[in-house]
């Protein structure tokens, strides 16, 4: 009898441990539950930090260009934002459609450090313009562009000077550090007078100087030679290009020098 009772108790414990009914109302331990809970909390903390400034960043002079709304943005040569751009899920996203167009900041900037994250869909193409003016029909007629691209899935990825992170058409990245389509890439663009740097995923991949003889010669050998105002402005708008493909931006912030 005693042995039978021990056997029954052991059986009940085994059933409870492998998903049996156990005691009504009693919480059951699930293998890996603590790890899952910790991962969820870490993800929640990360999401809470998206599109926010830390106290240290605020003290250093950073300000948000995207706070979860489109308040700091408008369309190129228009006062409202194109309908294809939306603020959803913590990202500034482009859904290609009839009402498209490049998005630009309402403010203009001269010397600055711009930081942001981007990701594209497979085969996607976009870009970040800087010091772009509205003097011409298109923003790329005046503003240099950091290329945003799925290198593996887009033809532009075959040429270094048009690959992700390049100063489009002019200066190639020193190495390909772009992450695959669907993954976030961290970017910094630093502009001080004539000096420009592109950083991506922690690596300085492009460095050049505007308005030099070398720069003018490089421009003269490209399509940009058609537009005398290309790269000549000392201040202008930050722009996010609508190239007809889904693209997402977040954590967009800037500090001026």
Structure explained in plain terms:
The structure is a single chain. This protein has 2 domains: 43 residues, no CATH class; 203 residues, Exo-inulinase, domain 1 (Jelly Rolls, Sandwich). Helices cover 18% and strands 28% of the residues. The protein is built from 4 helices and 13 strands. A hairpin with a 2-residue loop joins strand 3 and strand 4. The protein is globular. The N terminus is likely disordered.
Short description:
The chain is built from 4 helices and 13 strands. The protein has about 260 residues and is α+β, with helices and mostly antiparallel strands. A hairpin with a 2-residue loop joins strand 9 (about 185-190) and strand 10 (about 195-200).
Distance between the termini: 85 Å
Mean pLDDT: 87
Largest sheet descriptor: 8 strands, antiparallel
Architecture (CATH level 2) name of the largest domain? Sandwich
CATH fold-level assignment of the largest domain: Jelly Rolls
Structural class: alpha+beta
CATH homologous superfamily assignment of the largest domain: Exo-inulinase, domain 1
Number of strands: 13
Helix content: 10-25%
Uncertain runs: 1-31, 40-45
Q: Helical region count?
A: 4
The rough form would be described as globular
Which series of helices and strands comes N to C? HHHEEEEEEEEEEEHEE
What does the radius of gyration come to?
25 Å
Overall number of domains = 2
According to CATH, what is the class of the largest domain?
Mainly Beta
- Give the percentage of residues in beta strands: 25-35%
């Amino acid at each position: 009898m005693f042995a039978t009772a021990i056997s029954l108790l052991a059986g009940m414990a085994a059933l409870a441990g492998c998903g049996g009914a156990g005691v009504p109302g009693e919480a059951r331990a699930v293998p890996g539950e603590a790890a899952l809970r910790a991962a969820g909390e870490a993800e929640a903390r990360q999401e809470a930090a998206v599109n926010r400034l830390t106290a240290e960043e605020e003290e250093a002079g950073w300000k948000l260009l995207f706070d979860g709304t489109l308040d700091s943005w408008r369309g190129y040569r228009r006062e409202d934002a194109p309908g294809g751009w939306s603020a959803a899920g913590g990202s500034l996203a482009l859904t290609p459609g009839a009402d498209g167009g490049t998005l630009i900041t309402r403010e203009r900037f001269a010397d600055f450090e711009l930081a942001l994250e981007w990701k594209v869909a497979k085969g996607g193409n976009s870009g970040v313009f800087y010091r772009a003016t509205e003097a011409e029909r298109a923003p790329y007629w005046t503003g240099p562009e950091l290329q945003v691209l799925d290198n593996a899935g887009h033809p532009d990825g075959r040429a270094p000077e048009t690959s992700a992170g390049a100063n489009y058409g002019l200066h190639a990245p020193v190495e390909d550090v772009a992450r695959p389509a669907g993954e976030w890439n961290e970017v910094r663009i630093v502009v001080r007078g004539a000096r420009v740097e592109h950083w991506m995923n922690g690596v300085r991949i492009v460095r050049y100087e505007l308005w030099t003889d070398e720069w003018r010669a490089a421009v003269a050998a490209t399509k940009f030679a058609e537009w005398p105002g290309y790269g000549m402005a000392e201040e202008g708008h930050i722009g996010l290009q609508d190239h007809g493909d889904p693209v997402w931006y977040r954590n967009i912030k800037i500090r001026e020098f």
